[in-house]
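Letters spell out the chain; the tokens describe the backbone. To illustrate:

===
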Amino acid sequence: MPIRHEPEASRYVLLDDEGDFAGEVEYDTQGDTLLLVRAEVPMERRGGGYGVTLVRETLEMIRDEKHGKVQPICPFIAKFMVKNPEFQALRA
């Protein structure tokens, strides 16, 4: 599923295979650090793995495109990063 960075809205958006909204990660910027404040998947899509896909794709984009370091404020993102140590290098 594709992820899209929308810097004007301070968010990363997950789209499903049809191009429909499937979730978002909102962030604030503090220097060169992205404070990942919220990961949200629409209620009707919960339980389908969209949250994990959303967070994984967002962190991969941040890493691959060198958007900076991250500080996970959202508990879901923080827990995901603990369980997936390949993203620890992104931590501020």
